[in-house]
Amino acid sequence: MPPGSVGHVLLTHAHLDHSGMLPVLVREGFQGSILTTRVTAELLEISLLDAAHLQEEDARFANKMGFSKHKPALPLFNTEDAERVFPHIRAVPYKERTEIKNGIQVRFLDAGHILGSAIIDVKVTKPGSSSMRVVFSGDLGRYDALIVRDPVPIDSADYLLVESTYGDRIHPPEDPVRVLSSVIAETSQRGGMLLIPAFAIGRTQTLLYLLRDMKVRNIIPDLPIYVDSPMAHQVTELFCRHIDDFDQEAKRIYRQTGKCPILCSNLEFVRTPEESQRLNSMHFPSIIISASGMATGGRILHHLKHRLPDPRNTVLFIGYQAVGTRGQLIKDGAREIKIHGEMIPVRAQIRSMDFFSGHADSSEILRWLNQFKKPPKLTFIVHGEPESSSALANEIQRTLGWKTYIPQYLESFDLS
């Protein structure tokens, strides 16, 4: 489909696996509008510029060191490409139906995945015929998650596209305070540093919220916390400007304290590359949070390079690690890992937590689906590894009796 022929993009949230090709789309001729929520619209101006900057930096570094297989190494998109996206963005409020074309209305509902995330409800009405509803789940969040609200229930849809990231598993019951406090205590006793790869949008803020609570309740010592991600700093400030979109408990803390519940004592946001490099010379118990969450790029790579060889340190993964990423390889027990063309030994302690996952598991997806008053004509299972999608499709058929289908890449369907 030529980009110039696309009239509108409906964007569920700001994570780059959903928004990261927008600069390429615009560069190749897209002239329409990009509809999304107010918070996502603001997040995009941060995330796309940051992604462009990181790609430009990585390309320069790869060309300088000569370790890229591309000659020369080029960014997927640059800063100019990212800036061209912003005039196309149109922020719409939650819950309101917005007409984007004669007979086509869209409604954005809170998905509970990250702040600003949305389920998209599309209503198509043709003259002389009944309307049709197509619902996109987007990335569904978890129930009773920190900071964000629960996913909004949907009563019906003619066609449904539902995500399946964790469609083949149940998140194990986990006390995040107990696990995190244990990891912090064990690492501190060894004199090591705790390194946490975390996505700058959503995951970092949830982690800071929990660390603040643990410090306030004296569950952990007041260790220095360094957030080494300029983007995470910007996003945290943005979150603190949108407390109205927080859940009730986070709002209660804000009303009681008058302070943003994400911010805690002894917290430092690392801004410049020079400040980031200085962290490499620190060897006392502390916590470093840096992006990216799957260790695919960003400043986390420099920290892993310096911290992985030391057995006193701990690397704690708090989110999904896609197959083939450095994060997945380290988490699964790799003895050494390639970073910037160099093989780095993995001697640090490697731990992981499922609590911080922003994706609903199989039971939580079914809980959301169970709120439909009648089944869709067809439910498309998307956004998952083949095993996860297949498992969820089978579970929906078994427990709900719904008709499901797992579409293949570039497969098209006539819904009329």
**What's the CATH architecture name of the largest domain?**
3-Layer(aba) Sandwich
Query: What is the C-level CATH assignment of the largest domain?
Result: Alpha Beta
Low-pLDDT residue spans: none
Q: What is the helical fraction, as a range of percent?
A: 25-40%
In CATH, the topology of the largest domain is named Rossmann fold
Strand order of the largest sheet: 4-5-6-7-8-17-18
| Number of DSSP strand runs | 18
Q: Give the biggest beta sheet.
A: 7 strands, mixed
How many domain modules? 3
Output mean pLDDT: 95
Oligomer: single chain
Helical segment count: 13
The termini sit apart by 20 Å
In words, what does this structure look like?
With 416 residues, the protein is of the alpha/beta class. It folds into 3 domains: 92 residues, Metallo-beta-lactamase, Chain A; 137 residues, Ribonuclease Z/Hydroxyacylglutathione hydrolase-like (Metallo-beta-lactamase, Chain A); 177 residues, 3-Layer(aba) Sandwich (Rossmann fold), CATH 3.40.50. It is 32% helix and 19% strand. The protein contains 13 helices and 18 strands. A 7-stranded mixed beta sheet has the order 4-5-6-7-8-17-18, covered by helices on one side. The chain starts with 7 loop residues before the first strand and ends in an 11-residue tail after the last strand. The model has no long low-confidence stretch (mean pLDDT 95).
Give the secondary structure arrangement, pairings included:
Elements: E1 8-10, H1 16-19, H2 22-27, E2 33-37, H3 38-65, H4 79-83, E3 89-92, E4 97-101, E5 104-110, E6 118-124, E7 132-136, E8 159-163, H5 176-189, E9 194-197, H6 203-216, E10 225-228, H7 230-241, H8 248-257, E11 267-269, H9 273-278, E12 287-290, H10 300-307, E13 314-317, H11 326-331, E14 336-339, E15 342-345, E16 349-352, H12 362-369, E17 378-382, H13 386-399, E18 404-405
Parallel strand pairs: 1-2, 2-3, 7-8, 8-17, 9-12, 9-13, 10-11, 10-12, 13-16, 17-18
Antiparallel strand pairs: 4-5, 5-6, 6-7, 14-15
